[in-house]
Amino acid sequence: MALLNIFLLSPSLVLFVCTIVLLYLINRHSHRARINYPPGPTPLPIIGNLHQLDRKRIYKSLFELSEKYGSVYSIQIGATKAVVLVGYETVKDALVHHPTEFMGRPFIPVIHMLKEGSGVTWSNGEPWKQMRRFVLSTLRDFGMGKKSIEERINEEAGFLVAVIESYKGQPFDASIILNSATANIICSILFGHRFDTEEETFLSLVKMTNDNFKLLASPMLQIFNSYPFLRFLPGVHRKVFQYSKETKTLLNNIINQRRSTLNEGNVSGLIDRFLVKQKEESGNPDTLFHDKNLLIATHDLFAAGMDTTATTLRWGLLLMMKYQEIQKRVQEEIDQVIGSKRCPRMEDQKHMPYTRAVIHEVQRFANIAPMGVPRETTVDINFRGYFIPKGSCIFPLLTSVLYDKTQWEKPDEFNPAHFLDEEGKFVNKDAFMPFSAGRRICAGETLAKVELFLFFSTMLQRFHLHAPPSVTNLDITPAVGAILMPKPHKMCAVPR
Length: 496
What we know:
Elements: H1 2-9, H2 11-33, H3 58-69, E1 72-77, E2 80-85, H4 88-97, H5 109-115, H6 125-141, H7 147-165, H8 175-190, H9 200-215, H10 219-226, H11 236-260, H12 270-280, H13 291-322, H14 324-337, H15 353-366, E3 375-376, E4 381-383, E5 386-388, E6 393-396, H16 398-402, H17 445-462, E7 463-466, E8 492-495
Parallel strand pairs: 2-6
Antiparallel strand pairs: 1-2, 3-6, 4-5, 7-8
């Protein structure tokens, strides 16, 4: 009776409840009506399947749901419908065998507000093709895949070693130090020079970019992406927008400085190259070489070039601290092949199968981008027995590839033997996809591989790594974030 009185006194409440019920019934009907649409759990009104997901570890929940619904299934996160691809065979089939059909990027509100469809990572169609082509050619011209980039990385590794030596074996947090080292490599390509690691602008760029990566996977951001009309309410999304705005302001200042001193006869970085191209196309009203693309592309490359590589290195050092016997074997190989006097070189790799296996296993086990970067279908497609309409959001679950039980002997363990044959020779695996696959594979893959080998080898050549004496059990559970980072920790690096 009390409930009836509430409804009688509040017609608007009745209307609201009826609307919700109607939307639920429509959603269930449309979901069932799709011919051969991938199966999945029935969503609830408003929240979709959020109640079935661990919002701090969505990738784990999605992986587990595949045990019931298969390697291609549908999910609804809030108001966002998506198709999840699970396992090596399925993800490879989509991204490698159907690269055009799964090549798009979906509309994600927070990303759209930050990127506005520009840049490299989140653009689509012709804008993406032109920007990616320009970025790849410029990265190659400024050293990617050449000896010159090795020299820059080894120089930066020298600065890194000097900073670590200053701690004299005492505990310290390596996160900002490693972020600064990898950031300076991409800065040398973008801006034509490295920064002093104590410079205020540089430190601000590094810190805000790192903080945003941590915030972008927060549960509140997931809710915001489903209900962007909530943007006017207080929440973590406001901090993300603020950090992004301040980062863009700093980058714009650098870009304008490069513009004011541009010498077309002495182009020293990607920004200079872009500005020259912009001048060449100044009479073209449809040019994609405009200021917004320059800013967003610079932002994309700085963030990706800094954080993902630095995070992988942090995982590598943490795992060496935890598995001392593996660290010892790597150092024995370094001593044998490189010695203690000279810097590592990429050509050393072919003589260092165990070190290569360890670095690959770090990338596999760390699993820093478990969800992959979402895709969108560019056409209607019949895929592995299911119909997926054009414009569908796709989650190529990379964690399900890197932890696929059919591809890895002990997927849940850190085991360098995954990349070694019976004779101890290095063996690459097709299921090794930390950079994704297909036409939208990470543009900086080649650069990242060089950085990982040279920085990692230099660190273990120069230092023995161990946990602080007060730490009896190192936690290798990842922190929550847009990429999976190690939880905050300190390390001791004792000169060898």
